[in-house]
Structures are given as structure tokens and as C-alpha cells.
Amino acid sequence: MPQIFGRSFNWFANVSIVGGIAGASLLLGILLNINRLDYVSHVGMPKDQPVPFSHKHHVAGMGIDCRYCHTTVEESAFAGIPPTETCMSCHSLIWTEAPMLEPVRASFRDEMPLQWTRIHDLPDFVYFKHDIHIAQGIGCQTCHGNVDAMPLMWKAQTLNMEWCLECHRAPQDFIRPREEVFNMNWVPPANQSAAGMELVKKYGVQTSQLTDCSVCHL
Amino acid sequence: MLNRALALSATALLLGGCELRQAMYDQPKYEAYEASDTFDNGLSARQPVEGTIARGQLRLDSHLYEGKVNGELATTLPLELTEDLLKRGQQRYDIFCSPCHDRTGTGNGMIVKRGLKQPPSFHVMRLREAPIGYFFDVITNGFGAMYSYSSRVPIKDRWAIAAYVRALQFSQNAEFDKLPAEDRRQLP
Questions:
Q1: Is ipTM strictly over 0.95?
Q2: B82-175 adopts what CATH topology?
């Protein structure tokens, strides 16, 4: 039986070995990094909501504090999503006929909660807490971006593990005075690292264990 | 043939892995406010049975919890008046009341400027003479068109706000002679 592959085909074997490895690594690289793409982590992409609620109008336009609606953000893990009653404390008196707000009125009438589409949702094996971050001087803006400029809510950060760790390794680069946590227009001072170090000491931030797996994965 | 089988099982593993991964991402447990299809109104968080009282939630002190002493609106604070209490009151007032009543209590808040019914100024005689328990009561039960804030403002914060409203009332009607010397000098 004649040989199918002559000697001259040796180059083919070599190329296919190298090519195979390169191709496999490329695929692996893509798979491992796909989470980092904004498109996959939904960064900057608003989602449809049952009511087109605008943080831009309510926060920047009317100056309503985050805590008027996200009541539990200072004392619990969960920031809190306002019940329909909170909307109705104003909308029973203002814009009472607006068709845009009919789902809100219907929810109040029928005692059926509005079902908002979640924008931020960590996997269930990650245990995030708002209270400690607020108490230790991490601003809403640092993690959620300029909410006061969002006509519909979107994600400003990837929320992947690498992102959490970037701050847990060096909180002094992000920390701000406690009074500024709710301020959407705070700008870090030129000497943020030094000023941040002061605050880390002053607030007693526990930096030594912040990167332990058990902090976030329990 | 062997290769085909290998390739197939590798794909199956990958797909299975993804499914397992998904199951870990979204575990069969309720997160706060997650919807449930077990109950009619879709809420996973249940209300306590009516009439039950959780440990530590027995509210016998009617002065503290209802703002009433012997059935009459309280004229005194059930908490000690401290600078911290007033500061807390100011912060909570600015969050929950100022959108309508504005920061000084004249009733010209941002939402009123957008067309909401104007509330009365806190500086009218009737409200200056109202007992402090009245403000606690309005926050707790609402008043006319104003909704109750009891689900959002805890008991102690309501008293802190009431104390701060009193302070606002004094501030708008302060007598010149009672001001500290430093403030007096700043006035023409």
C-alpha cells in the first residue's frame, strides 16, 4: 500500500501540533476572559423596567436623597428597593393622571408588588453587604457610578471578583470621608492615596484580612 | 470513532459544567425581595401573623411608641435631649421631610415647587404651640394628604426629627437678646 502522507508532509504535522496548542490556548483565553467584556457583564446597558423610573429626574432634578427610597442601605446587607407606597407618597398627589405611572397606581390598588428588573445581581455564593461599605466611607458613586445622570439604571462596574479585590487590596485609593458617601459629585483630592491612608486609620478599616476568600464566600 | 466519542464527551462535560455553574450562580434560596411563585402576591418575604409580637417588640411604653401620656399627646421627649439627637434629627429631616417641607420648614420644598399640595409652614402659631408628641404622631400616622413615614423612619428617629422641628421653630422665632454674643455681632 502506498504511503498517503509522503515525507514532504512533515511540515503539516509540525504546524498542526503548534497550531492546535495555539488554537486551544486562544479558546481558553477567550473563555476565561469573556466575563471581562462589558457586553457580557452588561456594563453600561440599561434594561427595560415596568415603569421608566428615572434617577436623573428624581435625584439630580429634585434632590431626593438615596435613603428616601433605599432606606436600609446604612444598616443592612440589602440596600432596599422602595415599596409602591414610597412612590405613592408623592404620586398620589402629583402626576396622578400620567399614563406612564399607571403600573404604580395599579400595584397600589391591587396590592401586587411592582417587579423591577434587577441590574446588579452577584452570584448566590458571594455575600456582599452594603452597611460595612457605607460605614467605612465607600461612596455609592464608587460602585454604582453617577446614578444621578441615569435616566434608566445601568451597571457602571463589572462586579467581578477582580474588581472587588482591586479595592480590597488598596482601599486607601477609593475611600472618602463618611459625610461624602451619598454625594454624587465628590472628586478625590490630588493626594488621594495619602489622604485615604489617614481615613483608613481613622475609621479603623481592617485591611489585613480583606482579601481572604472567607470574607466574600463565607 | 474513539476521537468522536472523546470529543462528544468533552462537549457534554463542558455543557454540564456550565449548567452546574449556573446552578451555583442561582441557588434554590430566596435573596432579599426575590419573587416567589408559592404565594398569591408573589412575595417571598412573609408578614408575621396578625396579632403576634416578636421577641423584644412588645411596645408597652405609650410615651415612646405612641407619643401619648395618659391618652394625651406628649409634651415632653421620651429620650434625653442631646446634641447628637438633634444632629441625627437634622439628617433624617433633610432626607425624609425636606423634599416637601424644605430645609427650614416653610413648606416650599422642591416637590411643592413641582406642583405638590403645599403643606403649612411649621412656623405658624398653631404648629408652634402644638405639643411635641403631635409631630411624632403626624410622622407615625400621616396627616391628611401626607402619608405615614412609620415604615421608613424608626421610632427613635421620629423623636429626633420632632426635636429638630422644634429647634427649627425656635430658630425662625429667636429673640435677639437670647442669641449668643457672637451671633448678635453678625446681625446688623
A1: no
A2: Cytochrome Bc1 Complex; Chain D, domain 2 (1.10.760)
Are A173 and A94 found together in one domain? no
pLDDT in tens, B159-188: 999 999 999 999 888 887 788 888 888 876
Q: Select from B26, B99, B145 the Cβ nearest to the Cβ of A62.
A: B99
- Cβ pair A112:B42 closer than 8 A: yes
**Residue of chain B with shortest Cα separation from A72:** B152
* Domain total in chain A: 3
Judge whether A105 is closer than 8 Å to chain B, CB to CB. Answer: no
Per-residue pLDDT band for B19 (boundaries 50, 70, 90) equals: low
- Cβ contact (<8 Å) for A124 and B26? yes
Residue of A nearest to B109 (CA): A62
Cβ distance of A68 and B99 shorter than 8 Å: yes
How far apart, in whole angstroms, are the C-alpha atoms of residue B172 and residue A200? 40
Residue A28 domain boundaries: 7-36
Residue A2 lies in a domain: no
Q: Is A85 close to B147, i.e. CB distance below 8 A?
A: yes
pTM of the model: 0.91
Angle, CA B92 vertex, CA B86 and CA B97 arms, to 5°:
115
Cross-chain residue pair A113–B95, CB shorter than 8 Å: no
Query: Does residue A92 fall inside a structural domain?
Result: yes
